[in-house]
Amino acid sequence: MSLPPEKASELKQIIHNHLLKMDIHGKIREVLAETVRDDQGPARRSLSEADFLRALQRRGIIDDMMKDLHFTQEAGTEAETGSPTKPAAHFVDKDITHLKKTNIDPSRRCLYLQVLGGKAFLEHLQEPDPLPGQVCSTFTLYLHFRNQRFRSKPVPCACEPDLKEGFLLEIHRDGIGESGKMADATSMLSMCDPVHFVLIKTDTSSETMLVSSYFLDWRTVLSSPSSKTCFAVELMGVGSESKVPAGVLTVSLELYPPLPEILSADIISTQQSLERQRAAEKERLFLVYAKQWWREFLEIRPSNQTKLVKIFAQDENGVNRPVCSYVRVLRAGRLLESPRQAARFVSLLAHEKAPVVGGGGKQEQWCTLMAFLCRGKGDCEDHATLLCSLQLGFGMDAYVCVGTKAKGVPHAWVLTRGTDGSITFWESLTAHRYLHRPIDPDAPPLAPQPKPSYPYRTVGCVFNHQTFLANCQPSDAVELCVFDFQNQSRWKAMSEEALKSVCAPGSTTSLPPLPPLCSPSLDPAAASNQLELEMRYLVSEHRKDLDLATVWDDHLSYLLSSALSAYELERCTGVSCGNEEFQDAVRRAVPDGHTFKGFPIHFLHRNARRAFATCLRSPFCEEIVCCRGDHVRLAVRVRVFVYPENACAVWIMFA
Predict the structure, then answer these.
(1) What are the beta bridge partners of residue 132?
(2) What are all long-range contacts of 132-137, with beta carbons under 8 Å and residues at least 24 apart?
(3) Other residues' Cβ atoms within 10 Å of the Cβ of residue 100
(4) pLDDT value at position 452?
C-alpha cells in the first residue's frame, strides 16, 4: 500500500506525537539501563536489537503503545487505496452509512475479510466502460456472519468489477460462547457458521436482481501460516443457473490477533467432512421417514394425491430443504412494534416471481432470508415464511399455509390461531387480515352460512419451524376447512422429533444461519423532500408541454401531510383516524366558489419518473395534473415512511 508523500509525512508526525505523549524515550532509557545491568554477568556478550525488543515486549511497553492506537472499521477500507482503473461512473449510493471509529479489542478475536476484486463476470464482457457522469448498473456485495451484517459500496457492473472492500468480523459476539475468554483454535474449529455472501445487481431503473448467494467456510485460515490466507471464490448463479459460474471473487482472510500455533490442514478437512457426513446422514434419515409418512398419507384417501402437500422446497442455490427450515423464530428487536406492523413491513417488500428462461410453468424457487432481504423482493413463499417467522417472534401461534387462490394458482399465506380457537388469515403481500369461519356442510339448507371474504380456495398443508401438518379432510376447500390441528382425522402431523433433527437451528451445518433485520439508513424527511421536488418538477414540465402555467399552493401542500400520515397509520393498524381534522382544514383553505380535488396513491419505490408515469394512467390524477381554469392552484405532497431493511411506503397526493 503506497501513500502519497504528504500523507506519509502526516502519518509520521502523528506517530511521533503519540510517542512523545507516552514519554516513550524515558521508558526506553529505563529498560535499556536495566537490560545492560542484567547482562553485566560473567558471560558478557554484545546486546542485539532482538534482545532489546524482547525486553520491551516483556515489560508490556509495546502492548501499552498498541492499546492506545485507534483503528477505524469501515465498510470499504480497501476501496480507497485501490487504484482507480476506470472513470467513476455516475451512480449515487443513496443509503450512505456513516463509518464510525472502533477500537479493536485485543482480547477478542476478529476475522478481517478483504475482497480484492472480481473477475470473469462474463455476462458483462461486452459492456463498455461507463462514461463519467453516466448512470450505470451496479454490483453490491452483502455479507452475514454470526449476527453481523455488512454491505459494500456499489461498483459499476463489469467483467472485472472493482469490488475492493474490507470487513471486520467479530468471531466472538457477546452472548455467543464464553464471553471474556478469547476464542482459541479448537473453539473456532467447532464454529461451523459460514460467511454468507450475497451479490446483488441494481440496474439503472433501481430494479434489483440476485446474482449469487455463496456460503464461505472461513476455517482454512486456522491452518494458514501467520493466520493469513488468500484464495479465489467461484460464485455460482441462482435458480435454473445454479450450476453455471457467475464470476470469481479474490478473498483474503486474516485472523487478528494471529494464532500462537496453527492447526494442521488435515484436522480442518477432517472436521469439515465429519460435519458433512453428519448432516448427510440426518438428511437421509429424514428423507426415509418423509417417504414412509407420505405413503401413509396416501393410504388415508386416494384423492390426497392431488393436494398441495409441500414437504421440500428448493432455495436459490437449487438445494432441496424441508419447508420447516425456512421458518425460524425471528425477533426484530426495537425495529418493529407489533405483529400488524410486521405484516405492513413484509408487504412493502416487492412481489416478484422467480425469473425463468423460456415459457412453461412457474419456476418455483424459495429464498434464504438473507437473499430475500438483500434483494428487497421475492415470491409469495418468501413473504409468507418471513411474516410467519416475525409473528412467532411476537409470541403468536403462526403457520404458513400452502394452497391455491382463484383459478388454481399456487399460493402461500399465513394463519394465526387465537387461544379461543379463532383463526385469522394474513395475506403477506398486502398485509390484509381475514377472519375464517368454516361453512358447515351438514347444516340445514336455509341456515345462514358465513360468506368468505378471503381470496384463498384450497389448502393442502400448514407448517411452521417445528410442526408440519397435511390436510386430510374430505375436501381441501378453505371455506369447509376446520383448523383444529389436534384432531388427527383432519390433520396428519409429522413427527416433531424428525423435523427437529433437520430444521432446528444448529441441527445440521447445511442450514443457512438466520440474519438479524437491519435498521433503516434512509432519512425519511430528506427522502420525502427530494421526491417531492422531483414530482413538482415533473408536473410543471408536463403542464408546460400542454401550454399550461403552474401555480403551487404551499399551504395546501402542507395540509395534505395529515391525510398521508392517516393512510399509513390505517395500513399499519387497521384503524382509521384523523380524517375529520384534515377535511376541516381543507374546507378552510379552499376559497368560496372553488372545488377541491385530491388523489392519493401508494408506491413501494422512490423512482419519481416511474411513479409519475403510473399516476398519469389514472384518469382522476390526469384530471388534476392537467386541470385548466382561471384560478387553478396545484399542490403535491410526498411522504416516505421508512421501515427496517430500507423498505419504504411512499405516499403521494396530488390536489
Answers:
(1) 89
(2) 132/87, 132/88, 132/89, 132/90, 133/89, 133/90, 134/89, 134/90, 135/89, 135/90, 135/91, 135/204, 136/89, 136/90, 136/91, 136/204, 137/201, 137/202, 137/203, 137/204
(3) 8
(4) 84
Q: Is 199 helix (H, G, I), strand (E, B) or coil?
A: strand
Q: How far is 221 from 234, CA to CA, in rounded Å?
A: 18
The model's pLDDT over 373-417, given as tens digits with 9 standing for 90+, comes to 999 999 999 999 999 999 999 999 999 999 999 888 999 999 999
Answer yes or no: are the C-beta atoms of 630 and 583 closer than 8 Å: no
Cα 319 from Cα 243, distance rounded (Å): 11
Q: Which residues are 170's β-sheet partners?
A: 110
CB neighbours of 269 closer than 8 A, spacing ≥ 6? none
Nearest Cα to Cα of residue 468 among 231, 307, 310, 654: 310
Q: Is the peptide bond before 130 cis (omega within 30 degrees of 0)?
A: no
Give the three-class secondary structure for 162.
Answer: coil
pTM of the model: 0.81
CB 152 within 8 A of CB 75: yes
**What is the Cα–Cα distance from 559 to 583, expressed in whole angstroms?**
10
Cell numbers for 655, please give them: 390536489
Q: What is the pLDDT of residue 93?
A: 54
DSSP 311-349: -EEE-TTS-EEEGGGG------TTS--SHHHHHHHHHTS
The torsion angles phi and psi of 50, rounded to 5 degrees, stand at -65, -40
C-alpha 390/C-alpha 237 separation (Å) is: 29
618, 511 in Cβ contact below 8 A? no
d(CA 427, CA 432): 5
| Helix runs in 495-602, H state only | 496-503, 524-545, 554-573, 579-589
Of 654, 375, 358, nearest to 532 (Cα)? 654
Q: Is 522 exposed, middle or buried (0-12, 13-18, 19+ CB in 10 A)?
A: middle
H or E element that contains 471: strand 468-471
| CA 210/CA 202 separation, integer angstroms | 9
pLDDT confidence band for 88 (50 / 70 / 90): very low
| Confidence band for 564, pLDDT divided at 50, 70 and 90 | very high
User: In this predicted structure, what is the pLDDT of residue 437?
Assistant: 87
Residues contacting 332, CB < 8 A, separation 6+ = 342, 390, 393, 517, 644
Residue 288 CB coordination number (10 Å): 11
- Cβ–Cβ < 8 Å for 201, 211: yes
- How is residue 645 written as a grid cell? 431493511
Please check whether residue 372 is in contact with residue 198, taking contact to mean a CB–CB distance below 8 angstroms: no
Confidence of residue 69 (pLDDT cuts 50, 70, 90): low
26-35, 63-72, 213-222, 507-516: least confidently modelled range: 63-72
Residue partners of 391: CB distance under 8 A and separation at least 6: 339, 342, 398, 414, 416, 426
629 Ramachandran zone, left/alpha/beta (phi>0; psi -120 to 50) = left
How far apart are the C-alpha atoms of 561 and 636, rounded to whole Å? 10
Round to whole Å and give the CA distance between 650 and 53. 62
- % of the chain beyond a pLDDT of 90: 59
- Residue 62 CA to residue 109 CA, distance in Å, equals 19
